[in-house]
């Protein structure tokens, strides 16, 4: 029986999160850089720029989700961007992703946010299936544009 638990992470969890975060970056084709991952996470915690949730299977860390706060000017309300969601291979097919999404949704609701937004690669059908199965809707009203600096 799986003992999946999810809790909000703190700066004290940086060394637990860093290997997962590094693996997440490698999933998207980046080179491993555990030191840079650790420093990036430290900066987010130290500046209050993100909220992270950490998932465990018993005592083993198996996933994380990272939210960035934002706002809707039109709605005059708080929103969050679910920027990162990762489940390690050992944590997959155990409901970890669903539990991380639930934690993110509950957190956003507790702060009276009106929306969570995310983006995923067009080819990441596994993630798309997870999001759709948990009630997320694909945006068919807006296109996303990026300007690389």
Describe this structure in words.
The protein is α+β, with helices and mostly antiparallel strands. The protein has one domain: Aminopeptidase (3-Layer(aba) Sandwich). The chain contains four helices and five strands. Strand 3 and strand 4 form a beta hairpin. The chain starts with a strand and ends in a 16-residue tail after the last helix. The model has no long low-confidence stretch (mean pLDDT 95).
Strand numbers in spatial order across the main sheet: 1-2-3-4-5
Q: In the CATH hierarchy, what is the architecture at level 2?
A: 3-Layer(aba) Sandwich
**Could you list the spans in which at least 5 consecutive residues all have pLDDT below 50?**
none
CATH homolog superfamily: Gcn5-related N-acetyltransferase (GNAT)
Please compute the radius of gyration using only Cα atoms: 15 Å
């Amino acid at each position: 029986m799986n003992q999946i638990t999810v809790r909000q992470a703190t700066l004290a969890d940086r060394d637990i999160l860093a290997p997962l975060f590094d693996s997440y970056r490698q999933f998207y084709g980046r080179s491993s850089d555990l030191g840079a991952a650790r420093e990036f996470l430290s900066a987010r915690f130290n500046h209050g720029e993100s909220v992270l949730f950490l998932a465990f299977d018993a005592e083993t860390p198996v996933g994380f989700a990272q939210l960035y706060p934002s706002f809707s000017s039109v709605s005059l309300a708080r929103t969050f961007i679910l920027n990162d969601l990762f489940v390690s291979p050992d944590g997959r097919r155990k409901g970890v992703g669903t539990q991380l999404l639930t934690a993110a949704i509950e957190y956003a609701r507790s702060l009276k946010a009106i929306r969570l937004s995310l983006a995923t690669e067009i080819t990441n059908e596994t993630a798309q299936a997870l999001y759709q199965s948990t009630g997320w809707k694909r945006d068919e009203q807006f296109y996303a544009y990026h300007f690389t600096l």
